[in-house]
Amino acid sequence: MPATLHDVSRLAGVSIKTVSNVINDYPYVSDSTRAKVLAAISELDYTPNLSARSLRSGRTNVISLLIPELRSAYFAELADSVMRAASKRGLSVLIEQFGNDRESELSVLRNRRGRSVDGILYSVLTLEESDRDVIAGLKAPTVLLGDRIFNGPTDHVTMQNAEGARAATSLLLEHGRRRIVALGSHPGEVVGSGGLRLAGYREALDAAGVDVDERLMVPGGTWHRADGAQAMREFLSRDIPFDGIVAFNDTLALGALRVVQERGLRVPEDVAIIGFDDLDETNYSTPTLSTIDAGRDAIAQRAVELLVRRIEGADSSEVEEVAVPFRIIERESTSLTRGV
Amino acid sequence: MPATLHDVSRLAGVSIKTVSNVINDYPYVSDSTRAKVLAAISELDYTPNLSARSLRSGRTNVISLLIPELRSAYFAELADSVMRAASKRGLSVLIEQFGNDRESELSVLRNRRGRSVDGILYSVLTLEESDRDVIAGLKAPTVLLGDRIFNGPTDHVTMQNAEGARAATSLLLEHGRRRIVALGSHPGEVVGSGGLRLAGYREALDAAGVDVDERLMVPGGTWHRADGAQAMREFLSRDIPFDGIVAFNDTLALGALRVVQERGLRVPEDVAIIGFDDLDETNYSTPTLSTIDAGRDAIAQRAVELLVRRIEGADSSEVEEVAVPFRIIERESTSLTRGV
DNA sequence: GTGAAAGCGCTAACAC
DNA sequence: GTGTTAGCGCTTTCAC
Known about the structure:
4-stranded parallel β-sheet; 12 strands; 6-stranded parallel β-sheet; elongated; homodimer; DNA-binding; alpha/beta
């Protein structure tokens, strides 16, 4: 039976309010009273009951992070960033996974009901602008991450997908590559990270006056390593000439890297490869992987910041759209080939 | 202002108790009453206030998972397994990271106080048997994971470290390797995954009548990829002959793999490598990595099961020590070398 | 089958 | 500076 405020107040010989004052750092408590109370707290090993506090205050100090899956390195690193940012503000993070298909994503959104969190960070995977009512129906302030829904009902933090992909593609072009595979595009997709990155790829080719060959746009399933490997195997079997790969995330790139080398092609000499996300791992592949750092850490920080603002309610201003800057990181998989 | 039970009862024209009965599937409610109540709930978009429910019931339906860091693939995969197991039992998981050193681990344990969770799964990194009072001081039923504390104050689920490492080493021995590096050992460590795996390594060598060479025991820092790479660079600079590596986790193995290949050594021809953990990624390295599947998924399931038993309080029996079985998974990094 | 009412532990308005 | 007290929304005992 854990001790309550009441127990503490009795032991310290003061009222319950005084104990509460001490706990909440209310300044006007005499030093001697404070000492008595602290002694009682420590003797009883008292800890506040957070459920009671939440009930009373209407705040839980917990936020939810909705992501497709934690096993993906990108989301693990994102979750880590979010937890650090949240912890600075005294918030805990409850992670909820929804998998990789639209049905389970919808179902998690609909069934989570008011899970008694103060706010929600939701990394959209498959939903679209037309699903905005599902998002508006969430029972807590929400900030969207990801790139499928713009002008949604809530604040939104995103990365510069098109610009990043454009820079990645331009880098390969500068290195003299002309037959560049876009790995991870989904046929006909215009929104979402895939669609936007594909647009950036096209822009770069156009700007350089290089023909766009639809056969070089290789779909990448759910962007896992196996998808990258599988897609490249299939692509290689079609004997289409190529000398570079812009992969739409690092995991795809690493899968492709493996397959390309398996076939005896050298990276970067025969095929230059660049990914997207700057996962820890890209520093340790053979060769190390060039990539776009899309600003995952900044995204987490801005998102938590915006969410806290909404939670505090101090700010009922216009919905914000924030795009954080990206950085191009060149490593071995594209190096030493300038001017070829 | 969210609707309360009271609002619902008023709209449905019944008492608050009846609404509560409907929500909690109490059987003796007439169909017509139930229908009225459900209609009111849906009209008001009512969701129970979990804080109030927790305050009243003393249960939060949340468990904490304490791990060193989510960015490590192993812990991301473990967290995923735990969340799935927990979700089957209606529990949410609050992940708390404590980093990689003893001080922060202790500090998180001490300061988390009664964070109002029903139970705690704690993956021990640096604490030892002598720290058992810190663990006993946790304010909720706890199940330990990992391999530093046996005969602790709580249930404990572990993997077969020594047996797994022994099997891994034996595999290389069977392939004719005699100069096998133990990567990730910490000098003088006897407890913990590192100490146990090193013991298994020694056992295998002894059983095969192969001399143990202390110079082949290479420390691996915090078992990250960079540690594996760094340790192997240093080891290679010392020109000690070797033909195999038993790495104490997959991440170390992947870091080592990279460095070994960088130096022009062929895997598995010149150096056979085997890891530990069966990370998703080991299927996609070049070459694919042989490894020990230590049963991460089974560990998560058993741990949640044990924790739930303690939470329900139905069972105050003896503390349990559970070791889940392991599996050896042979891939390219050790293949084609039998009998060399 | 349904209703009235107590109380979980805390915070904060208000009184002294 | 400190004490009293109402009430957050829910579950549950006990009447009816």
